[in-house]
TrEMBL record:
Pfam families reported for this sequence: Amidase
Molecular-function annotations in GO: ATP binding; glutaminyl-tRNA synthase (glutamine-hydrolyzing) activity
The protein's assembly and partners: Heterotrimer of A, B and C subunits.
Protein name: Glutamyl-tRNA(Gln) amidotransferase subunit A
Organism, as annotated: Candidatus Kaiserbacteria bacterium RIFOXYB1_FULL_46_14
Database matches in InterPro entries: Amidase (IPR000120), Amidase_CS (IPR020556), Amidase_dom (IPR023631), AS_sf (IPR036928), GatA (IPR004412)
Class of this enzyme: ligase
Stretches of the chain forming a coiled coil according to its record: none
PROSITE patterns in the cross-refs: AMIDASES
All copies of domain Amidase, residue ranges: 26-458
UniProt GO BP: translation
Lineage of the species this protein comes from: Bacteria, Candidatus Kaiseribacteriota
GO CC terms of this entry: glutamyl-tRNA(Gln) amidotransferase complex
Function: Allows the formation of correctly charged Gln-tRNA(Gln) through the transamidation of misacylated Glu-tRNA(Gln) in organisms which lack glutaminyl-tRNA synthetase. The reaction takes place in the presence of glutamine and ATP through an activated gamma-phospho-Glu-tRNA(Gln).
Reactions catalysed, as given in the entry: L-glutamyl-tRNA(Gln) + L-glutamine + ATP + H2O = L-glutaminyl-tRNA(Gln) + L-glutamate + ADP + phosphate + H(+)
Length: 474
């Protein structure tokens, strides 16, 4: 069910939040032994559901928009009193002492938190195999990954335990798992959603966003979590969202040369028929050039590790998290970090420390930041011509667990998503049809990229193209 369908049934009394929570828990106990979408399942959900059920009896449709709606939350987003590990051993014993702003807003809107979801350690990865607590499996084909790093959130929705989940996206971690699991994934404009209470990965790239079954639900959740927050000075106000007005028909730009970079033939075919559908609905498709986007992945793997190395410096075994004592303070730091971080986190800390070191700063970090500025200019020039840029979300459907043991082949999954984070614009991934692998039909995703603050445009086109088809609600 979607959030909007649930909400209607809650208001009519046909279904209650108590039943919804009981159902969510039943699905989790039936399926999560195999899927492992969740790290923790919360036992206070029933209490919250009882209150929500009573509220509907008294207030009906005057209840807040998410009253009684069960949600799953990625485990790098703090919920007061709950364990927040970032799927890292180094935070195994950490209990959050406050609510992230997004959690506070969801709570005020009446949402119920069912549990926290598995992820790649500190959100580093594209498969959820980098979790210290073991991988998550794709509910559509359990021999395959759900994508990452928000793979647990995607699997939680795809296995129908909850109608929606929160994830975070630093280089594609909401959109890519959405595409692997047949869901709608939204990465908002940088600054649209507060990062207060999110574990920082790459602070200039991170945004919390949504994994849902419909574009309408993505919009409902976005409207709740977005907006200025005095706790995060990079947040922007809602008024900024008028900048990309909605239209009856849109002009889409296809960066043809960029797409030449190793997309599976059948994924490309799905993409071409998606473009045909857009044309048939009266939209215009034009070719555009985004030559610098081809260097996006290279720039991302300089900027992101640099920020990671600095953000993860706080995990020293002294202030919080797991401590491994040594004979002196230095050895305690070394033991705690050597034991607490997994291989991918260590790789990125080393890479980041290297690119920030004095002899290399200008050659690597400085250049990558300069390139980022040029990419922004290039994209703005494209948006003078087109309303939206369109690409496949990922070059392949979900791959098998263990298939991408070489980190570089894993990194390539993000080729179309990282430029969006580097330039700070919003993007939406919606399902674009299935391709077959080993006799199983696997979903693929198409990514719409809008100008800065252009969420309204993404919701408008997403509803027209996806919700209208899937839910027949025009
Ligand atoms: N897969 C990308 C990475 O490994 C993106 C991760 C993310 O968006 N958190 O960095």
């Amino acid at each position: 069910m979607t959030i909007s369908e649930l909400r209607k049934k809650f208001i009519s009394g046909e279904y209650t939040p108590m039943e919804a929570v009981a159902e969510a828990k039943a699905v989790i106990s039936e399926k999560d032994g195999d899927i492992h979408a969740y790290l923790d399942v919360y036992d206070d959900a029933e209490e919250m559901a009882k209150e929500a059920t009573a509220r509907y009896q008294k207030e009906g449709g005057n209840t807040p928009p998410l009253c009684g709606v069960p949600l799953a939350i990625k485990n790098n987003i703090l919920i007061a009193g709950k364990r927040a590990t970032g799927a890292s051993k180094i935070l195994d014993n950490y209990i959050a002492s406050y609510d992230a702003t997004v959690i506070k807003r969801l709570r005020d809107a009446g949402a119920i938190f069912i549990g926290s979801t598995n992820m790649d350690e500190f959100a580093m990865g594209s498969s959820t195999e980098n979790s210290a607590y073991g991988p998550t499996r794709n509910p559509i084909d359990q021999s395959r990954v759900p994508g990452g790093s928000s793979g647990g959130s995607a699997a939680a929705v795809a296995m129908s335990s909850v109608p929606a989940a929160l994830g975070t996206d630093t280089g594609g971690s909401i959109r890519q798992p959405a595409s692997y699991c047949g869901l709608v994934g939204l990465k908002p404009t940088y600054g649209a959603v507060s990062r207060y209470g999110l574990m920082a990965m790459g602070s200039s790239l991170d945004q919390a966003g949504t994994l849902t079954n419909s574009v309408e639900d993505a919009e409902t959740l976005f409207n709740v979590i977005a907006g200025r927050d005095p706790h995060d000075m990079t947040t922007i106000s809602g008024e900024t969202y008028g900048v990309a007005p909605t239209k009856d028909t849109y002009t889409f730009g296809v960066p043809r040369a960029f797409l030449g970079q190793g997309v599976d033939a059948d994924v490309m075919e799905r993409f071409e028929s998606h473009l045909d559908e857009l044309r048939a609905a009266g939209h215009r498709i034009v070719d555009i050039e985004l030559p610098l986007f081809e260097a996006g992945l290279a720039a991302y793997y300089i900027v992101m590790p640099a920020e990671v190395s600095s953000n993860l410096a706080r995990f020293d075994g002294i202030r919080y998290g797991v401590r491994k004592e040594g004979k002196d303070l230095l050895e305690t730091y070394l033991n705690s970090r050597a034991d607490g971080f997994g291989a991918e986190a260590k790789r990125r800390i080393l890479l980041g420390t290297y690119v920030l070191s004095s002899g290399y700063f200008d050659a690597y970090y400085g250049k990558a930041e300069a390139l980022r500025g040029k990419m922004r200019d290039e994209l703005n020039a494209a948006f003078a011509q087109v309303d939206l840029v369109v690409t496949p979300t990922a070059p392949t459907p979900a791959f098998k667990l263990g298939e991408k043991s070489d980190p570089l082949s894993m990194y390539r999954q993000d080729i179309f998503t990282v430029p969006v984070n580097l330039t700070g614009v919003p993007a939406l991934s919606i399902p674009m049809g299935e391709v077959e692998r080993d006799g199983v039909s696997l979903p693929t995703g198409v990514q719409y990229i809008a100008p800065h603050g252009g969420e309204a445009r993404l919701f408008d086109i997403g509803r027209k193209v996806y919700d209208a088809k899937r839910y027949n609600n025009g």
